[in-house]
Design a protein that fits this description.
Pfam families: CREG_beta-barrel, DUF2470. With about 270 residues, the protein is α+β, with helices and mostly antiparallel strands. The protein is built from 7 helices and 11 strands. It folds into 2 domains: about 30-175, Roll (Pnp Oxidase, Chain A); about 180-265, Alpha-Beta Barrel (Split barrel-like). The longest helix has 15 residues, at about 250-265.
Length: about 270
Amino acid sequence: MAVRDHGDPGDAPSAPPPLRPPTNDARPSAAEQARTIAAATNAATLASLTADGDPWASFVAYGLLGGMPVLCVSDLAEHGRNLAADPRASLSIVAATTDVDPLAGSRITLAGKVVRPSDADRDAARAAYLSAVPAARFYLDFSDFTLWLLRVERVRWVGGYGRMDSATGEQYASAEPDPVAPAAAGAVAHLNADHADALAAMARAFGGYPDADTAACTGVDRYGLDLRVHTPRGVAYTRVGFPERLASADQLRSATAELARSARHSS
C-alpha cells in the first residue's frame, strides 16, 4: 500500500512505531476499496473535455453494471456534447463521512473512455441505472438522453491523509465490493461502546503495541479492524486482521468475538 507521497508539513504529531510487527495486517486492495466506494453511492463528479480541450466538471448520477459506471446524460447538456465528441472521461466519487475535514475521508477517481452500450448490454445498463436512480424513469427513454458506459482503465484510491494507491482497470473489474461495508458503521459504534477493553487487548496481542493503554476502532472491513491506539509513547494507528476473509456481514460478530478471545488468551 502506498504511503504519503508529499512532504511532511513539519507540525504533524509523530506516531510511535509498533514494538513488534502486527500479527496480520491484511487489508483490502485499492481495487477492492474502489469497488466498495463506487457501490456505496450513486453520485459523482464527471470530468469531460470540451471542444477546445478544456476540462469540464459536472455533477452526475450513475448506476453500476458489474462495477462499470452507467451514465444517463442529456445530449443538450455540455457534458453530453463533450462525451459524444471525445470519449475520454473520469469520475470522482467521494465516500460518505462525518469528519469535519473532507480531505480525511476516502475517495476514488475512475478514468477511462465512455462507450454506448451494445444492443446486448442496453437492457442491463438501463436496469442498472434505474436501480440506482429510480427517478430516471421519468426521462431515461427520452430521445435526447443517452446511456453511456465508462470503461475503467485506471483507478486512484485515496483513503485519507497518507493512504493512497492505484489499480488498473483489469484489477478493478475483477475485484468486488466489500460485503461488510453496509454494516461497518454499526459494527464500529458497537465495538467502541461495548468492547473497548477487547480492542485494547487486540492492539496489545496482535497490533504490535503491547504498551497500548486504550484502543478505538476506526474502521472495519472483510479483512479486519483499523485501530487508533493510545500508548505512553503517543497515539498510533494499527491493523488487526481476521484469521480468514469474511464472506458476509453476518460473520462480523463471530469473527470479532474470536479475535477478542484469542487476544485475552495471549495476554
